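Handout, section B. The chain below has 317 residues.
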Amino acid sequence: MPTQGPQKRLLGSLNSTSTVTPHLGLATNQTGPWCLQVSIPDGLFLSLGLVSLVENVLVVIAITKNRNLHSPMYCFICCLALSDLMVSISIVLETAIILLLEAGALVTQAALVQQLDNVMDVLICGSMVSSLCFLGVIAIDRYISIFYALRYHSIVTLPRARRAIVGIWVASIFFSTLFITYYNHTAVLLCLVTFFLAMLALMAILYVHMLTRACQHAQGIARLHKRQRSARQGFCLKGAATLTILLGIFFLCWGPFFLHLLLIVLCPQHPTCSCIFKNFNLFLILIIFSSIVDPLIYAFRSQELRMTLREVLLCSW
């Protein structure tokens, strides 16, 4: 990958039109005076990475400590936390190295910096792929628990969950290595964008179907107990709001990054696209924000997990 100095951020090889069309460079003034570039300080990467790190470590510790949480669903949530943890560790390490290089406290050869950058790129790309996979698996798990409730424990068993988890980790490492190795191929970027759209479509279809079933169930209960229609409508509106927040956060946090990759393929020389490319660090910040929000959505809403976490924190004091 091309090295762009100590200022180069994570997956910086994807933040360049040269990855697709190396002979068509953009001049710095080609974006125009109207281009808005959001400056992201290294301190923000470091602080958000540390917040995500603490959050996801607590989730992993709580699930590991409580044997009642050793079910397939919590195994998937734990793996999602591990994926987000990898994002946090990558961000914290990379930002610390950048600050040390800028301060002159760390002097090393360019070849070593290049190798370290490659390792971090694979780590962050693998964590992104695994995070998206586990978000999809959690949606599938919840779908089965609702539509196949009586057969859930025979369908989603711990051995099957473990095999799925191992498969996802192996595939994530393999494909992230492949993506970083052949990052300058258009097909690689299109595969990443297609993968994101597939996960978004999967989650949207499953969660909308679950919401529809929940509303139908609420309607049946309301008819049985002759409750008011407003109560059923309130339940459906609450469910719709929750679904909108869940999918909205997913799309807002991950969408800009994959839009960036798609625009590298579609319009590498267009001034508007070039302006978007300049905000690559902002898109990475949104992904870090996703790793902060995931525990709040998928883990901390569990009462038993919160109780275990409270015990862990009290014992640590």
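Note. The chain has a mean pLDDT of 79. Compare this with the example in section A.
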